[in-house]
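Changelog-adjacent note: as of this version, every example in the card shows the full chain rather than a window. The one below runs 495 residues end to end.
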Amino acid sequence: MPDTAVPYVARQFNAAHPHLANSGGVAAQLANQAYVEALAKVVFYWGYPAVDTFSRTDAWEVMKDGPGATMGLFPGSPKNVMGYLDDYMSPAQRKVVTPNSDTIYGVSVVDLADEGVVIQTPTEAPPGHYWTIQIADLFTTVIRQLGSASGTPGGKFLLVGPDWRGETPEGFVEVLRSPTNIVLAMGRSFMARSAESKAQARAVLNQIGVYPLSQDAPGLRVFDCEACARNKVYPPPITPEIIASDPDILRIRPVHAERFWDDLEKALDANPKVAPDDAPMVDQARTLLALRAADPAWKALIDRVALVAESELFESAKYHQVGVGAGGGWQRQENGGAWGTDWFGRAQAAVIYIYVNDFHEAVYFVRGTDAKGALLQGRYTYAVTFPKGGLPPVDRARGGFWSLSMYDQDYYFLTPSPNGRNNLGTVNLDADELVFNADGSLTLTLSNREPADPAARANWLPAPAGQFALLVRTYVPTEAILSGAYVLPEVTRAG
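Full-length structure tokens:
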């Protein structure tokens, strides 16, 4: 009798007569194994962002006593509440890759299984101030991008799960529906380095928040990002002294290949419904999980695939490999945030810059090579020259800005930076810190050594001694960027 506890689609991978005389059944066994291996690799790429996102629910227990700064470095909070930082993420941290030094953050990991949550947007954001609330599902696909770029009104939105039924409650602007129960809501508020800009950024962020619908009351809340940032929570045995002496202790990947399939099963159990683009893959994942649970031999094969796939994913998700050519030697993922069925690109993004905004909101350009295709190395000096009138065209009226960020080969900031810079862009231009050439062009200098020339020194972005990578963020891009008509300048080796 068949083992009906194992679904048919899983049982069928066992050849009906594997032990035919003269090894007659071996070919069928190998064919079935090859199919399962291929399927498992695709499912690994598909499920990688989901496992990454679900791993962040661990913060609910760590931060159970209220929102604060997890390990003093990252915004954290209990379930369905937003935690905040009131300044840039520390460049010394070694957990979050490719952080920005353009905005301050609020983050909430939400579970919509039992009830909806209130998403509050600011009513008093100054004209031209950039803010956004990015709402991404379990798989990191952006569901909605509220903010200055889209002209979102101030007030309260209701975020609900796939099973919610009802009408828009009184006092709410709109109901937003997530295809999954687990959601990440991330608020950003632009901040320059002046005291005035920091105060403005915090004032806007203090109007952005998340809380359970059951705790709603008439009117809007005022949040306190500064108090939250001061509430530094260190889960035992971590202490501030340990992190200060060994920041690399935080280099723990959120996805672990050796337990990937167990973690994927937990994530899917907590999210029985997913978006239409992901639904067919749930069935494939469940088939593999059933096969893995039914037979130690299949478990060994499927577990091995996860190890191989993780290694290949991290190699493909290098700044000198990911994306497609966008001109000038730069690369871009053209569908950032709006992944659809691009499971490969979504997994790569989860490795190098998870939770990228929808590409209509922000376009990211990356590179790891110079104009001649050689890897970028700090021992050389490079120049990036924008022609007169050729700076990245962003919509300043809706809060647009751009920046060029420098990262080491592991995609962390240089620390300490000799001139305090980890990026260059709109902030420096507005502060009149950069020196233009006589013809109106702007040359940025990238090197590990401080330039001797005063103009080059004014425009210097320090590089690490070894290999490095670059990322240009263009927030609120104009049509010229979105269409590809605008091309960033090459990175040329000058010495």
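Structural remarks: Residues 26-55 form the longest helix (30 residues).
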